C-alpha cells in the first residue's frame, strides 16, 4: 500500500483488515492509471480518495462516525449542539421563512434524528426535511438510521437528493456541518506574502508510493496567491521562508450552485466548520499548511497513507468563504466562534434546567461535560466557527 503507516509524531497507525486493504489497493491502482501521463492536481487526488463511489472514504461509506469511528462531530458529541440549531429554526419560523430544512451532508444522520425529535416534541416539525447527500452509501446508512430512530409519520417528512438540480425549494433553513473542510483543496508552496514564489504541488507516483511533485502555477493559483496576499499583506516574512498551504478552488462554483438552487427564496444558511481568518491560516510558521488526516481517531499529516480509508481535511478560510458567498449573491451576517453562537441561543438556559432536574451527580457531570466540550476554548468552542448567510426573498 502507498505510504508508511507511521504518523509524523512517530506513532504507528493501525493496520487495516484484508477487505479494507484490498479496497485501498484497488483505488491506488486506479490513481496510478490516472497518472500515466504525469502527476495530477492534489484536488483531483483528494476528490478521488474521498468521493469515488466504489473506493472513496465517503463515497463508498467507509467513513465511521462517533466514538468508535475515525472522528466525532458536534452532533455526535452532544444533543446540545442540535438544540442550538432547533433554536435557530424557531427564529426562522418566527421571521416567516419557508417551512423546510435542508441539511447538506448528513453524516450518520445523528443531527437529523435529534433535530426532528426535538421539533416533534415541540410541535414545530418542518413540512419537509431534505438531505443533500452525494454518497449513495451514506444516504442508505442515514435512511436506515433515521427509519429506525424516528416515528413513521416523522420519517416520512424526510427526502434525499444527490444534486443541487433536484432541490425543490420554497425557502427555509439550510445547515452544513463540517462540509467545507472536506471539499477537495489544491496544495502549493510559497513564501507567504510573495505571490511570485508560488509553486503548485501535484501528486505523482515513484513506483512505491504517492509523492509531491512541483509544477508551475496555473492562472487560478496565481490569482489566489494575489488574493491571499491582498488580505495578509506583502513582505510579512523574511525571504527564503517557504511553506506549504492549501486553498479551496470550488468555493465560488459551490456557492453559485447553491444560490441558483435556492432560486431567490428567502433562506438562512448556517455553516459550521473549523477554520480561521486568512492571516491565521497562512501564517509563516504553518510550514505544512493545515492539511489533516484522520484514521481511527489518530490525526496525522500524510494524505498518501491508506488511500480511501482515511479522512482528509483542511482548515476553512472564512474570509475566502465570505468573498465567495457575497459573489454568489448571499448576504453575510458574520462569523462567530461556536461558543459565542451557542451561548447566544437558549441552550445555556436549557442546560441549567436539565442540571437542576438531575438527582445524581454522575448525570450532572455528564451533562456539564457535554456542554463544556462544545463551548470551551480548549475543546470545540474556539476552533469551530459559525457563519450565517441569508438569501433575500424575491421581494426582499
What does this entry look like structurally?
- By secondary structure, the chain is an alpha/beta fold.
- The relative contact order is 0.15.
- The N and C termini lie far apart (55 Å).
- The longest helix is centred in the N-terminal third of the chain and has 17 residues, at 18-34.
- Strands 2, 3, 4, 5, 10, 14, 15 and 16 form an eight-stranded mixed β-sheet that branches.
- It has 14 helices and 16 strands.
- The radius of gyration is 22 Å and the shape is globular.
- It is 38% helix and 22% strand.
- α4 crosses α5 (110-122) and α9 packs across α11.
- The chain folds into two domains: 18-46 and 183-251 and 277-312, no CATH class; 74-181 and 255-272 and 320-391, Rossmann fold.
Structure keywords:
396 residues; alpha/beta; Rossmann fold; 2 domains; eight-stranded mixed sheet; five-stranded antiparallel sheet; 14 helices; 16 strands; globular; disordered N terminus
Chain-wise SSE layout:
Layout: H1 18-34, E1 40-41, H2 42-51, H3 74-77, H4 79-94, E2 100-104, H5 110-122, E3 128-132, H6 136-149, H7 152-155, E4 158-161, E5 172-177, E6 186-191, E7 194-205, E8 210-215, H8 219-232, E9 243-247, H9 251-262, E10 267-276, H10 278-281, E11 292-295, E12 298-300, E13 311-313, E14 316-317, H11 318-327, E15 331-337, H12 338-343, H13 347-357, H14 361-375, E16 384-391
Parallel strand pairs: 2-3, 2-5, 3-4, 5-10, 10-14
Antiparallel strand pairs: 1-7, 6-7, 6-9, 7-8, 10-16, 11-12, 11-13, 15-16
Helix pairs in contact: 4-5, 9-11, 13-14
Amino acid at each position: 500500500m502507498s505510504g508508511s503507516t507511521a504518523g509524523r509524531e512517530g506513532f504507528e497507525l493501525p493496520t487495516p483488515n484484508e477487505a479494507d486493504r484490498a479496497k485501498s489497493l484497488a483505488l491506488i491502482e486506479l490513481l496510478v492509471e490516472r497518472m500515466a501521463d504525469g502527476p495530477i492536481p492534489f484536488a483531483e487526488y483528494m476528490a478521488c480518495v474521498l468521493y469515488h463511489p466504489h473506493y472513496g472514504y465517503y463515497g463508498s461509506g467507509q467513513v465511521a462516525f462517533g466514538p468508535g469511528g475515525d472522528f466525532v462531530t458536534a452532533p455526535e458529541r452532544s444533543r446540545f449542539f442540535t438544540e442550538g440549531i432547533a433554536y435557530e429554526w424557531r427564529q426562522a419560523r418566527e421571521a416567516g421563512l419557508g417551512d423546510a430544512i435542508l441539511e447538506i451532508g448528513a453524516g450518520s444522520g445523528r443531527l437529523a434524528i435529534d433535530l426532528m425529535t426535538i421539533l416533534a416534541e415541540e410541535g414545530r416539525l418542518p413540512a419537509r426535511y431534505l438531505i443533500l447527500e452525494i454518497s449513495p452509501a451514506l444516504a442508505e446508512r442515514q435512511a436506515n438510521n433515521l427509519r429506525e430512530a424516528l416515528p413513521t409519520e416523522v420519517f416520512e417528512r424526510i427526502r434525499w437528493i444527490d444534486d443541487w438540480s433536484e432541490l425543490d425549494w420554497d425557502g427555509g433553513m439550510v445547515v452544513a456541518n463540517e462540509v467545507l473542510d472536506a471539499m477537495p483543496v489544491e496544495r502549493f508552496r510559497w513564501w507567504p506574502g510573495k505571490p511570485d514564489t508560488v509553486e503548485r504541488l501535484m501528486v505523482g507516483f515513484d513506483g512505491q508510493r504517492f509523492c509531491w511533485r512541483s509544477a508551475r502555477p496555473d492562472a487560478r493559483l496565481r490569482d489566489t496567491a494575489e488574493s491571499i496576499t491582498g488580505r495578509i499583506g506583502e513582505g510579512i516574512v523574511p525571504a527564503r521562508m517557504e511553506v506549504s498551504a492549501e486553498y479551496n478552488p470550488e468555493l465560488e462554483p459551490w456557492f453559485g450552485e447553491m444560490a441558483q438552487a435556492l432560486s431567490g427564496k428567502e433562506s438562512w444558511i448556517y455553516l459550521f466548520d473549523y477554520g480561521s481568518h486568512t492571516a491565521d491560516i497562512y501564517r509563516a510558521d504553518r510550514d505544512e499548511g493545515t492539511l489533516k488526516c484522520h484514521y481511527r481517531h489518530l490525526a496525522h499529516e500524510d494524505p498518501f497513507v491508506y488511500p480511501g480509508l482515511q479522512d482528509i481535511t483542511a482548515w476553512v478560510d472564512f474570509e475566502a468563504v465570505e468573498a465567495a458567498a457575497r459573489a454568489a449573491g448571499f448576504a453575510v451576517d458574520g462569523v462567530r466562534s461556536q461558543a459565542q453562537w451557542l451561548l447566544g441561543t437558549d441552550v445555556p438556559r436549557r442546560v441549567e434546567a436539565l442540571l437542576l432536574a438531575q438527582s445524581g451527580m454522575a448525570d450532572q457531570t455528564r451533562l456539564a461535560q457535554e456542554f463544556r466540550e462544545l463551548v470551551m476554548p480548549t475543546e470545540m468552542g474556539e476552533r469551530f466557527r459559525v457563519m450565517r448567510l441569508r438569501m433575500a426573498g424575491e421581494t426582499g
